[in-house]
């Protein structure tokens, strides 16, 4: 197992932070009600957690680490539910199409960043463990 390159690690963190900060700054500056902002913020946080859970479950299964079927299923359902909730929220929102696109792509960038940061962390730990062995 090779440790991820510094460039890939940096790109992953930049994607994660750019997505999260962009989404949150967009919410902060939005003219929507506080309960709407809370809805989108919760979907983002739940999505980040679900993405990391899915990545971990898939990786554990590939490496032969036991994963319960219920947790594996809940992780996938959670990820799909977050995407569905974001789509429903944006579909019904009274936002400009450009704003809807902004939130959708910031969300996707955040999810991608969360998955790659988790992958890099796991790969880095695996590389360290091989060196010690």
From TrEMBL:
Recorded superkingdom: Bacteria
InterPro entries to which the protein is assigned, alphabetical: YiaA-like (IPR038972), YiaAB (IPR008024)
Pfam family, one: YiaAB
One GO BP annotation of this record: DNA damage response
GO CC annotation terms, alphabetical: plasma membrane
Full protein name: Uncharacterized protein
Native organism: Chitinophaga solisilvae
């Amino acid at each position: 197992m090779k440790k991820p390159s510094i460039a890939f690690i940096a790109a992953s963190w930049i994607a994660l932070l750019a997505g999260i900060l962009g989404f949150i700054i967009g919410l902060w500056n939005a003219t929507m009600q506080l309960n709407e902002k809370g809805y989108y913020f919760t979907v983002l946080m739940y999505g980040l957690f679900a993405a990391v859970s899915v990545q971990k479950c898939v990786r554990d299964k590939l490496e032969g680490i036991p994963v319960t079927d219920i947790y594996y299923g809940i992780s996938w359902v959670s990820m799909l539910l977050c995407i569905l909730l974001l789509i429903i929220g944006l579909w019904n929102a009274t936002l400009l199409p450009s704003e809807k696109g902004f939130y959708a792509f910031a969300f996707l960038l955040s999810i991608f960043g969360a998955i790659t940061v988790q992958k890099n962390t796991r790969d880095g730990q695996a590389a360290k463990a091989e060196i010690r062995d």
